[in-house]
C-alpha cells in the first residue's frame, strides 16, 4: 500500500506543478491581452483624431455658402420633379386656366390639347399647385 500512496503523492505533486505552470502562463496571457487592449484603444483614439482632422480640413477647404441651411434642405425633394415643373408649355397652359376652371376641368383641357406622355390628372395639378403656391 505504501507504493500506491507514494505514486499518488507524486501524481498530486506533478498535478500541482502543472496547475502552477498553467496559472503562470495564464497570467502572462492576461498581461499580453491587457497590453493589446491598451494598444487597440490608443489606435482607435488616433484614428478618431485623424478623422476629425480630415473633416475639419475638408470643411475649411470647401467654399463658403451664404444660403441658410433650412432653405437649402427645403429644396431637396426625393423622386423626380413633377411633369408640370419640367414642361414650360404645360405649366403656362395650366396657369392660364387655374383661376377660372376647376382642377378636373383643367385636367380635361390638358387631355384634349397635349399628347398622352405630357398629360397630367387633377391630382397632379392639385399637388403641384399646392406645393408651388402654398401660403408662406
The portion of residues assigned to helices is over 70%
Distance between the termini: 104 Å
Q: On the 0-100 scale, what is the average pLDDT?
A: 84
Task: Provide the structure class.
Answer: mainly alpha
Would you mind describing this structure in some detail?
This protein is mainly α and 136 residues long. It contains six helices and no strands. The N and C termini lie far apart (104 Å).
Index terms:
single chain; 136 residues; mainly alpha; 6 helices; 0% strand
Q: Can you summarize this structure?
A:
The protein has 136 residues and is mostly helical. The chain has six helices and no strands. Helix 5 (103-113) packs across helix 6 (122-133).
Topology, element by element:
Blueprint: H1 2-61, H2 69-75, H3 83-86, H4 88-97, H5 103-113, H6 122-133
Helix pairs in contact: 5-6
